[in-house]
Amino acid sequence: MATILLAEDEAVLRMLIGDTLEDEGHQLDIVCDGEEALQKIGQNQYDLVILDYMMPKLTGFDVLTQMKQMPEKQSVKVLILSAKSQHAEQEKMRSAGADDFMPKPFSPLELVRKVEDMLA
């Protein structure tokens, strides 16, 4: 299926999301902070990048904006996960290049549907 980078600092969510998407047949690289995410993005080709908004070292917003400055990465789909679900935050992310936004908490089934829609 798809190659996905998951950047999430909460261990339980990393495990839940990782297991859920791997069960759907996706190949995942999983990191726990924004710096690692940016390194992986620079080194690998992904179909989708899932970024937590609030992470150590670099936020999801920082990673998104730096990633979208890389010409060869501009077409990569980005899904932002965040407990900050205010409309203004969502618009900020979309303006920076995020393709979609998923507020926390969410169900694994919701995430699978969102990922499948984004990859279709």
UniProtKB/TrEMBL annotation:
<dbReference type="InterPro" id="IPR001789">
    <property type="entry name" value="Sig_transdc_resp-reg_receiver"/>
</dbReference>
<feature type="domain" description="Response regulatory">
    <location>
        <begin position="3"/>
        <end position="119"/>
    </location>
</feature>
<dbReference type="Pfam" id="PF00072">
    <property type="entry name" value="Response_reg"/>
</dbReference>
<dbReference type="InterPro" id="IPR011006">
    <property type="entry name" value="CheY-like_superfamily"/>
</dbReference>
<feature type="modified residue" description="4-aspartylphosphate">
    <location>
        <position position="52"/>
    </location>
</feature>
<protein>
    <recommendedName>
        <fullName>Response regulatory domain-containing protein</fullName>
    </recommendedName>
</protein>
<dbReference type="GO" id="GO:0000160">
    <property type="term" value="P:phosphorelay signal transduction system"/>
</dbReference>
<dbReference type="InterPro" id="IPR050595">
    <property type="entry name" value="Bact_response_regulator"/>
</dbReference>
<keyword id="KW-0597">Phosphoprotein</keyword>
